[in-house]
Structure formats: C-alpha cells, structure tokens
Amino acid sequence: MIRIYKSTENGLIQLDDFIPNCWINVVDPTPDEIERLTVEGIPMDFMTYPLDLDERARTEREDDGKMLILIRIPYYQGPKADAPYITIPLGIILTDQYIITVCRWQTDIIREFESGRVRGLSTGKRIRFVLRILLSNASKFLAYLREINRNVEQTEDRLQQSQQNKEVLELLQYQKSLVYFTTALKANELLLERLQRTQLFRMYPDDEDLLEDVITENQQAIEMVNISSNILSSMMDAFASIISNNLNVVMKILASVTILVSLPNLITSFYGMNVELPLQQNPIAWELILGISLFMVGVALFIFIRQRWF
C-alpha cells in the first residue's frame, strides 16, 4: 500500500501521484508497488531491507546521495501473543525530492503522522521530518513501557491471590517484550550517535537541538527499560522462591498428617493378628487401645507443634 502526502497551509493532504517535497508512506508493498518506486530511482535494497523483521538499525548511503535510515520501532501485537510488545524495522529513505517511509505493518507512529495531529509538520523539511519520526519513536517506547509496568503491577496483584501458572506466564511474556525493547533501544542509540556525527543533521541549529532531544529521550527509554527489566526479574525470582517455600510447607504438612494417621494404624494392625494378644480378654480393651492411640497421636502432634511443623 502506498499513500502520498504533502504538507500545505491547511495541513497534510493526500495526493495521487509523486511530486517534489512529498512524503511517501509504504506499508507492506506488493511487487508492483516496489517496481513503481524503483522506477522513480529508489534502490531496490532500500525498499526490501525494512520488510525483513530481523533487520538491525543502521544507515546506508548511495553514491548519488540517497540515504536509508533503518530504525527499530515498538509494535503492539495484542495480549494473546507470545510477546505482547515487540520491535519491527522502519525504513526512512531520503532523496533530493522525496521522503519515504517503509514498514511491514501499519504502526501507531506512522498513523499519528498520517492523521495530521503532529503540529508543525512539513514534508518539505526532510531532515526535520526524520527527526520528528525519531522523537516520536522514542516517546512511543516510553509510552509502551508505562503500559508494560502497569500491566505487570496488575498481574502481580492477581498472582498473590492465584495458585495457577497463568500469571507467571504473563510475566514471562512481558519479560520477553522488555528484552526486545532493550536490544532495539541500544541499536537505535548507536544509530543516533552516528547521525549526530553526520554533517547532514548538523546543518541547522534547530535540527541539531532536536537530534539531541531525540538522543535524550532514547537514553531515558533505555534507563527505564533497564529498571523495569531488573524489577521484573527480581519479582519473578521472589515469586519462584515463594512458590518453592509454599510447596515445602504443603509437603511438610502432608508428611505430618501421614505420620499422625499411621500411629493408630500401627497399633490396630497388631491387634488384627490372629494370635494371643494382651488385653484381649479385658472388657474395656477397645477403650484402652483407643486411648493409647490417641495418646501417641497427641504426643506426636505436640512435638510437631513445638517444631513448628503446623
């Protein structure tokens, strides 16, 4: 799917064909759409790299000045996915006439730009446009991290009242998401440092200041995801210890109950034998045997309570 936009005095408008200083948004393009863009001089590799979900963040530049900026952006798959939050590549292609964004799926970041809610957006200022995307990307990481922390807190509250593994598996899913975020943010950090050394992003003071803001936001996201990951890891270790301790308590109680039940059974089994036994002629033999059994159970129970087995 290809959508073409251009900023005007009345906001962002959608076009039917390519014109200079326009923004071309490409989502999961077909072979015909890729060929249409290559006819305009866009390298084929620049179009296919962002469609590979395993591509790392980097920059590439052609001899004619065309530039590809490949970043990792957060993507929400849904609560039933193996990892609710993952990262996917987003390609930003800069030419002397166009700015092109290429992604495998439609994302919240691009959807926000298409809606026109981003103020002061100009498709003609291509470097500023790229920096706004990078800033929005860092902010989206922070927003998703806040959602993860909130969901983890809710899952933690349910886990304290639950005896099942569902909540533990949910925490594991969020831990996977944090690993994806950590890897993507560190890769984006290296990319931003490389862009900061590029003269193209240092031509105007406003652009340079905006790039520093992007780097600051990305560093904040890295610190936040590290804190969240450490807290979640410590939480899972603590719950693993609690579950193990609860299992030991249950097993200890079951062992104690087994011993208490076996004591009367031990005495009565002797009196079940078909041989001469003490008290067998005594009219209160049953009461005496019952009393001895209860006495032994009471002594064992007293010992267990002293040892804090109950």
Please write out the topology.
Elements: E1 2-8, E2 11-15, E3 22-27, H1 31-39, H2 44-48, E4 58-61, E5 67-76, E6 85-94, E7 98-103, H3 108-114, H4 126-161, H5 166-196, H6 205-270, H7 285-306
Parallel strand pairs: 3-7
Antiparallel strand pairs: 1-2, 1-3, 4-5, 5-6, 6-7
Helix pairs in contact: 3-4, 4-5, 4-6, 5-6, 6-7
SSE order, as H and E?
A: EEEHHEEEEHHHHH
Strand order of the largest sheet: 2-1-3-7-6-5-4
- CATH class type of the largest domain: Alpha Beta
How many separate domains?
Answer: 2
CATH topology of the largest domain: Beta Polymerase, domain 2
Radius of gyration: 34 Å
The proportion of residues in beta strands is 15-25%
Give the N-to-C terminal Cα separation: 67 Å
Give the CATH architecture of the largest domain.
2-Layer Sandwich
Low-confidence stretches: none
Number of helices: 7
- Whole-number mean pLDDT: 82
Q: What is the number of strand segments?
A: 7
Q: What percent of residues adopt helix (DSSP H or I)?
A: 55-70%
Keywords: Coiled coil, Membrane, Transmembrane, Transmembrane helix
Coiled coil: 145-172
Pfam families: CorA (PF01544)
InterPro entries: CorA-like, CorA_cytoplasmic_dom, CorA_TM1_TM2, MgTranspt_CorA/ZnTranspt_ZntB
